[in-house]
Amino acid sequence: MRVVVTGSSGRLGRTLSMGLAASGHTVVGADRTPVGLPGIEEREVDLLDERAAAALLDDVRPEAVVHLAGIAVPFSAPEQQILVTNASLAHSVLTAAARAGVGRVLAASSPTIIGYGTPGWRASAVPIDETHPREPSNAYALSKLLIEETVRTFSRTATGAYGFFRPCYVVSPEEWAGAPTQQGHTMLERLDDPALAAVSLFNYLDARDAAAFADAWLAAPADVVDGEGFFVGAADALARRPVAELWRELAPGLGTDADRLTGTQPVFSIEKAAERLGWRPERTWRSELEAAAASADRAVPAGGSADVSVRAQRARPSGHAARERKHPTEPVGATAPGDPERPSATETRIP
User: Fold this and answer.
1) CA–CA dist 169, 261 (Å, integer)
2) Would you say 178 and 172 are in contact if contact means Cβ atoms under 8 Å apart?
3) Which helix (DSSP H) or strand (DSSP E) does residue 292 occupy?
4) pLDDT per residue as tens digits for the range 244-289
């Protein structure tokens, strides 16, 4: 299938684009700053320009669009800018897709749409599934609500299948090996200090599993995905202890339903994606940290030592400085179009 991926230069976009290409799709990446993805045709385009978005799709004539582009981090820009940018991007891209007769359009939303992190917030049920009320509490989450409603609007009014997914806190492959996350700390530090993961309700998603989800979504019958949304996350929580032992101290909004989460069971349910699409994640933090440690050890010359490795990080105390977060809600998966060193099509760098 010929697929346009918007926001292809971002943290999620890079991995998802290459994953779809590895699955046999012909991928065209659309971003304001191409990054030289191997095997991917990249187009430099500002998708906020409706004419540019339309020209891109008229030229490429894709069979599908995966829309990831947007400001990826809550509070990383003025609230109105986040709201207007993300909502406008979705409307621009989906309008262009409808006019070009694209058969499949999948847009990225976010679990933040349910409103956790707001003082007094309470989960309606745990595990949290797609029936949970949408209660956005900041412009980022509100922009995702508008994206979901834009998807539903085009599902009702355009030909083809339009859907959305809510990826949990996205982890890129290099972050398992110790590269800093969007918040500046490492994945091991998130595990060593559960409070760092609690603000995102202990959820995460390997970006390669997000690519596999997109591939499954593209292959599913249109009537299964049209107008539908899916939580997409790992099959376990980002915590060494069960959520049932942690929620009272770190995520009290989950309520006593969280006592039913046994073993490694995560807060967000991915059963809808499993049942309707046959998709299940293949990676866990345990498997990926072990693989990263083994890879780091193999890379050390005989008689030498690794300056930066997962094993070295494991031995290093995480400290408490990372607890000092600027905002009550940290980014959870979502579009993740760029990192601090590589802004994407619409990412805004704030001093």
Assistant:
1) 19
2) no
3) helix 285-299
4) 999 999 999 999 999 999 999 999 999 999 999 999 999 999 999 9
